[in-house]
Every structure is written in structure tokens, then in C-alpha cells.
């Protein structure tokens, strides 16, 4: 029906087989359920935004996929691009729908996003993100910074993945510290420290020096980045560092620093009280993005640290320019996670098809009788299909086997066979039930 | 956080408020459930295909959105475009995954598609489609043409919309008849007849004349298009027409015609036996697309015929070029349907947020006690949120009202209040349940 040439996968655009899709769909359903239980409403936004809105952050601009209608050049000022995250569209949505929303507005959003990156291992050009945000009107209490972290920790704990550890820092703490050691371009310094894993301490030093940061300030910044603890003991390490560091005596910066330390300690304790063993205060977490103003989060899976952060976010002073919408949010890179679950065999689907039962067909004339049995089972929520042809029963059982359907129903005998064990028993379509674990496809952790 | 200018909706890219999204999500969930109960496995395909694959059908080409990376011209032969339906990507998916699929392969697919149409009322540039197809390997029994129609009829009957009527025709019948009256360009004639509603009988005559169709053949074609019935009585009307029509005596064409008549009669009877009052044999249904070779379907909602067909499809000889994958499928235009449900007030959400309960906070020091109550409720599947601030209880109740949350829990009193009735009663978070209809947001038909 469609002109076909050779078919090959497109690098960076993952697709799953039906049984792999069962795993992905189960993971998405779990996220939806945890988010819903915590009062987050779902929204979806259109896939496109005006390019000039998307391109606001110049780093992202080169990754944007711009659209044009084939055979027609649209005017440049009307150009649309595919969203590369769910934050930009959410900001626009809040601005557009604000009169209809009750604040603090709690939303989750699970959609695909697109990035025109050069394809490389573990980097996708199309992938699912799952975001939660809580956005206030003018004010946003700081306990909500703990809440989004707790909700995400619970969501990750409900997935078939190893334990997740959330590394948390505080932008006020960092900014207060950086300013106190005489750094003027705090955002620039943060972007350099964010590369610590990639370019190492010497690389960071070189970048900082290029940005006019003094040697002693470089020392202080790198010492700060070494501090981490899973409770508030990091506070004394920070105090030790502070007392041995030259500071400018800027009292605003010092207050920012002290407030940040207290906030971070409270946040880590609150998250660990709710989901023990989850949170670590980690002073090296920088997050490249300029707009964070409080807590910043990155999350790593035990034994899968090579994946990088699978769930990141932070607190921001305003979702929209002009202010007035402070919020806090986190985002899971779902496709990367699903890909790892599949490639590492962390979970598999019990079957690729919904059907628990294949109703056999004795001959084509009696197909309506098989259809009636199937309908009686479906009425009671048991996914069922009818054999496509009245082949020999052996062939029909083979068909069920190939599709992964566990039960075959024989209408004339009035019996149902578990084709895995071979056990066959009389059954009434109005009352028979498969074992609960066979009713729907499930995923099982390995 | 993002550079903001004026925010305005983009014509053709619908977005829903949170309570409207509850309606859309409920409709999508219903479709998934009906499709699953009938043994259709879900797949998702990437949003993009190579442009040359999409552009195979020249009519669609001008509607394709092509992608380019901003600030970088990609080579024309590597160009990607957004899919405009789910059939082209499904065909490619089947070809790519064939070794891993068990045939007949039954799949459903619910995704957004994009069409760069000129925006006009009821036409979207981004919208959800929900497709089911059954694809065989080399053979596909004709009873599956009834099955997809029955599944779609049941899916539509489960939605909050008026009764749907499915108009069915058969391409073999039409082709046999057209060839018997001397029409050579059957596909061209079909495309003209497909415009009957738009350009009227005289317009169709003029087009047919331009394609070399004789006056008597034009008469016959327009007479055929008038025939319809909700049972097999259309057969005698067709036979009457046949006896009064000049035919060329082409015996292959006559056999095709006779086979098509018998298939259509059997199909309409089978669908109406399963879902009474659904199917009408309607000999004017043409479907512009060339690839259909058996049953073709269009579906209209009673009282909403102005929407056009909301669920269309047909049988085709091969999903992929080169043959070997006969199938039958239908597609629902979900966004158009949701839009009508919302604008006509056919259904509304009971609330916009998942939360059934807002746990009040007496003072910030006792917030952990409120959190514990919320967690106890969530444990038992009751969506719950905790008040964002320890304001006066009156304010907290107002907050619940604005968010549409029906119950407020008072931790100190150990009581829960239905804020709609004002009724308040002692409650234990380990055992209390809201009425079943309040547990989750639902949609109610009006």
C-alpha cells in the first residue's frame, strides 16, 4: 500500500516490539498512578511551539527540529518547532490557562520530546519524558521542594529498577558561597562546575581561571564540590570549609549561604524521613540551567550510574517571564530508563498480547458459537480472541502458543486447556476465570 | 524562565484544560480497554518517517510537515517528516518487525498525527488517531472484516456519544459493476463518486464525463450510489439495477460484482447480529484511497453527521509493497470526536484533579501528621493531597473547593468533611473510603 524500499531503523528513534511495549506501557502506567495518588492532574500540550520561544536558551537552539510544510516555504516568523522538553510548553500553558487553574497547580505530563542531537549511544532524538511540577501564584512554600522529590522517589521505587539515589544541592547555598569567595559570574562558574565529571578538576580550574576566578576561589569551589552526606552532617563539613576560606564579608551573600545550608539540611532530612535512604546532600550538583533558584536534584540508579541522571529538576522563582509563578519540578527521562530495563533484562512481559484465551473454532459454520463464548469472557473483563481459521485443533493450539496466549477454549467439549501445563478442565464461559496473574499481561522483574 | 511574549493558541493545535483532559483521557482509556479485550496488542511507532516514504501518495505530500535542524540544512535525501496517519508507519513497522510477529497480527495504535492543512473549522493540524488493524501473512479470512467493524462499533458504543451508524460498501462489488458498465479507470471514477456530497450528482457527472465515462455508465454509477439498506434487502435493489443496465458481458467483472454483493450482504448481517442497528450497506461509500480491495467503512454519529465520518477504513490486499500482508483496519479521529463531546457538552468531568481528599494542616509543625494521614489514604488507592499552607481552616476548605476536591480531612479532630453537603464525620485513615463515585475523577454524560 505504500512504496517500499529497504526498511531500516532510524538511529535515535527507538521503537519497541509488542512485548517490549508492554514493559514501557506498564512503566508509564505506574508513573501515572503514583502521580495521581499525590494529586497531580494530567495535562498534554501540543508538540509544537513557535521557534523563537523554543530558542530562548541559545544552547538548546541547535537541537531544535523546525517544521516546514513540504513544497511550501512558510514565513520565518511563523515557524514552528518540536518541543525539546516539557517545561517550555508547560510555562506557556500556565500563562495561557492561568485564569482557569487553581494554584498551587500540580500537574504531571508524559509526552514525547524531540532533540536533533547527533545520534550516539544512549542519546535519543525522540523520547518520552515524565514531568511533575507544582507551581504557585506569587508564593511557593519550601516544603513542596521535599514533596516533588518524595513523589519522584516513590515513583522510581515502584518501577522495576534498582534503588535510586537522589543527589540534592541548593542554589542559594552555592550562590552565597560563590559570591562570598569573590566570584561575580556565578552562572558561568556553575556551568563550569557542572562539567566536573567530564573535564575533571583541572579542566574546571582552567575554565574558572578563564572566567576571572582567583586561585583561592577555585580551591574553595572545588573543595565545596567534594562535600556530600546522606544526612545533615554535611553542615559541619561546610562550616569547616567556611572557616578556612577567605571570604569577602558580603553580608547578603553570607545570609544567602546560611539560608541555603539550612534549607538543604531540612530538605534532605524530609526526603529521607519519607523514603529512607533516598537523598544525599551533594554539593557538586550544579545543573547547567540558569533558572534554578533553590533545590536542584539529580538521580542515579545504583549499578547504572553510567546512565547519568535519570530524574532531574529544581526550584525556580518564576515559570514565566515577568515573575509571579514560582515552582518546583522534576523530570524523568523515561525512554532511556525503559531502554536500560529492556537491555539489562531488569523486567520482561509475561506475554506480548492482551488475550488470556483463544477460543477454538470447530468449523466455520459454528464460528458464531465461538464468538459467543469470547463475548461472555470479555463481558467479565477477560481479554479473548477467536481462532482465525477452523484448522485442526493442533494447529489452533500452535497458533495460541506462537501468540503467547495461555488458554485455549474448546466450544464443543466445553473445556479449557492451559497449554503450558496441558491441564484441561470443563468450564462455563459465564463463570470461569483464569488465575489472576494470567488475566492481563504483566511485567516481571528478573 | 522562558522569554515570553504574548501567548495565544495556535490554530489547528487543540489543547485541553485539566478537566477537559479528564474527558479525553477517559475516552482514550475506554478505547484501549475495548481493543485489549478483543486481543489487540498496543504498539507505538516513532513520529517521523523518511519524507519519500510519506510522500508516496501525492495527494498527501503537500500536507506533510518536514523537519530540519535549526541552523543546519540536512541533505534532502535524509529528510524526515511527521507521520500524517498511523497506516504508513504501521506498514513500515510490520515490515521491520515481521520476523517477531505472530500472524494474523492484531494491533491497536493511539498516537498523535500531524497534517499541515490550511486551518479551518473542525480541521486539526495535530490530532489523536486510534487505529486497529488485523494483518495476515498471505491470507486473511473475510470474517475478520466483520470483526474490526464489530470491535469499532463496540468501542464507539462505550463512549459518551450518540449512536454511531456504520456505512459499508465493498470494493469488489463496485469495481465489478464499474467494469461491467465499461468504465476503465475505476480508481479515477471512485475518486469522483467520493465527492458526491461536496459537488453533487451534476458535478460527479461532469468529472466522470471528463474521464471518458459514457452517459449511460454515469447513470448506472449514480443509480448504484443511491442504494442502501440496513439488511440484505439492498441485494434485490442491486439486482433490479443490474437487469436494467447495459453491461459489457465481461465475465471476470461479473464474478467480481457477484462475489462483492455476497460479501457485503454477509458482512452487514454479521455486524448487525453482533451490534444490532449498527451497519448499513451503502453503495455510495467510495473512500478516495486506492489501496482498498474489499470492505470499506465510514461511520457517522446520529445528529452529528456534520462531523463527517469519525471512523473509517477498509480491507486491503497488502500492507506493504510486494504483497503478502493482506489486512483490514479502521481508524477513529479521536480529537475531532473529543472536541465535539466537549463543545456539545455530551460529557463533563466530575472534577479536574485526581485528589478525592485534601488533608488540612493545623500548623506547619504538625505537617508531618497530615502527611501521614495522606500516605495512609494513598496506600489504599485514594488520591490525596495535603494543604499547601496552614491557613485558617476556612481558607483551606476554600482551596479544596477551588480545586474541586470533595473531601477535607481534619487531623486534630480526626474527622472528614464532605464540603459539598457539609456533612462531617469521625474517620480513620486506615479504613475510611469515599463513595466509589468520588474516588477518582469520572466523566458523566449529560
General description of the model:
2 copies of one chain form a homodimer. Chain A is of the alpha+beta class and 446 residues long. The first copy, chain A, folds into 2 domains: 18-42 and 100-348, Bira Bifunctional Protein, Domain 2 (BirA Bifunctional Protein, domain 2); 357-445, Rossmann fold. Chain A is built from 15 helices and 19 strands. In chain A, strands 1-5-6-12-11-10-7-9-8 form a 9-stranded mixed sheet. A 5-stranded mixed sheet of chain A has the order 15-14-16-17-18, sandwiched between helices. In chain A, a hairpin with a 5-residue loop joins strand 17 and strand 18. In chain A, helix 5 (143-157) packs parallel to helix 11. Chain A starts with 17 loop residues before the first helix and ends with a strand. Mean pLDDT of chain A is 92; it is low at 1-5. At the A-B interface, helix 1, strand 1, helix 2, strand 3 and strand 4 of A face helix 1, strand 1, helix 2, strand 3 and strand 4 of B.
Please, what is the oligomeric state? homodimer
CATH C-level name of the largest domain in chain A: Alpha Beta
Task: Please indicate the percent range of residues of chain A in DSSP E strands (runs of 2 or more).
Answer: 15-25%
Shape of chain A: elongated
CATH superfamily of the largest domain in chain A: Bira Bifunctional Protein, Domain 2
Unreliable segments of chain A (pLDDT under 50, ≥5 consecutive)?
1-5
**Rg on CA atoms of chain A, Å:** 27 Å
| Largest interchain contact | A-B, 106 and 105 residues
The number of distinct structural domains of chain A comes to 2
Q: Say what the CATH topology of the largest domain in chain A is.
A: BirA Bifunctional Protein, domain 2
**Widest sheet, order of strands of chain A:** 1-5-6-12-11-10-7-9-8
CATH architecture of the largest domain in chain A: 2-Layer Sandwich
Count of individual beta strands of chain A: 19
Amino acid at each position: 500500500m505504500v512504496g517500499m524500499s529497504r526498511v531500516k531503523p532510524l538511529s535515535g528513534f527507538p521503537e519497541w516490539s509488542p512485548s517490549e511495549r508492554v514493559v514501557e506501557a506498564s512503566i508509564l502506567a505506574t508513573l501515572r498512578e503514583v502521580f495521581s495518588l499525590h494529586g497531580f492532574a494530567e495535562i498534554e500540550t501540543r508538540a509544537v511551539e513557535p521557534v523563537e520561544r523554543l530558542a530562548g536558551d541559545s544552547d538548546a537552539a541547535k537541537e531544535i527540529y523546525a517544521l516546514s510544510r513540504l513544497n511550501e516555504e512558510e514565513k520565518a516568523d511563523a515557524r514552528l518547532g518540536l518541543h525539546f522538553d516539557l517545561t517550555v510548553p508547560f510555562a506557556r500553558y500556565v500563562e495561557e490557562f492561568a485564569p482557569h487553574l487553581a494554584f498551587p497547580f500540580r500537574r504531571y505530563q508524559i509526552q514525547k520530546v524531540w532533540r536533533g542531537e547527533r545520534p550516539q549511544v544512549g542519546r535519543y532524538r525522540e523520547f518520552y519524558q515524565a514531568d511533575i511540577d507544582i507551581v504557585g501564584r506569587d508564593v511557593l512554600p519550601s516544603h513542596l521542594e521535599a514533596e516533588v522529590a518524595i513523589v519522584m522517589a516513590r515513583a522510581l521505587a515502584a518501577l522495576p529498577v534498582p534503588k535510586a539515589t537522589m543527589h540534592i544541592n541548593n542554589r542559594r547555598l552555592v550562590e552565597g558561597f560563590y559570591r562570598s569567595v569573590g566570584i561575580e559570574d556565578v552562572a558561568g562558574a556553575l556551568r563550569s562546575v557542572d562539567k566536573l565529571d567530564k573535564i575533571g578538576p583541572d579542566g574546571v580550574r582552567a575554565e574558572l581561571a578563564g572566567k576571572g576566578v582567583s586561585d583561592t576561589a577555585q580551591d574553595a569551589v572545588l573543595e565545596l564540590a567534594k562535600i556530600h552526606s546522606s544526612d545533615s552532617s554535611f553542615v559541619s563539613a561546610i562550616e569547616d570549609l567556611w572557616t578556612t576560606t577567605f571570604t569577602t564579608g558580603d553580608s547578603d551573600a553570607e545570609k544567602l549561604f546560611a539560608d541555603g545550608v539550612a534549607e538543604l539540611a531540612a530538605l534532605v532530612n524530609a526526603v529521607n524521613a519519607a523514603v529512607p535512604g533516598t537523598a544525599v546532600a551533594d554539593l557538586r550538583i550544579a545543573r547547567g540551567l540558569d533558572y534554578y533558584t533553590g533545590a536542584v536534584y539529580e538521580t542515579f540508579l545504583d549499578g547504572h550510574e553510567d546512565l547519568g541522571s535519570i530524574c532531574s529538576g529544581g526550584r525556580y522563582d518564576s515559570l514565566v517571564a515577568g515573575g509571579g509563578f514560582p515552582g518546583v519540578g522534576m523530570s524523568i527521562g523515561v525512554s532511556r530508563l525503559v531502554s536500560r530495563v529492556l537491555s539489562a533484562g531488569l523486567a520482561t512481559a509475561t506475554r506480548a498480547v492482551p488475550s488470556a484465551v483463544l477460543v477454538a473454532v470447530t468449523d466455520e459454520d459454528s464460528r458464531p458459537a465461538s464468538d459467543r463464548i469470547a463475548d461472555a469472557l470479555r463481558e467479565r473483563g477477560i481479554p479473548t480472541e477467536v481462532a482465525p481459521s477452523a484448522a485442526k485443533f493442533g494447529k489452533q493450539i500452535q497458533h495460541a502458543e506462537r501468540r503467547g496466549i495461555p488458554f485455549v477454549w474448546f466450544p464443543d467439549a466445553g473445556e479449557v486447556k492451559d497449554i503450558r501445563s496441558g491441564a484441561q478442565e470443563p468450564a462455563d464461559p459465564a463463570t470461569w476465570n483464569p488465575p489472576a496473574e494470567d488475566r492481563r499481561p504483566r511485567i516481571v522483574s528478573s
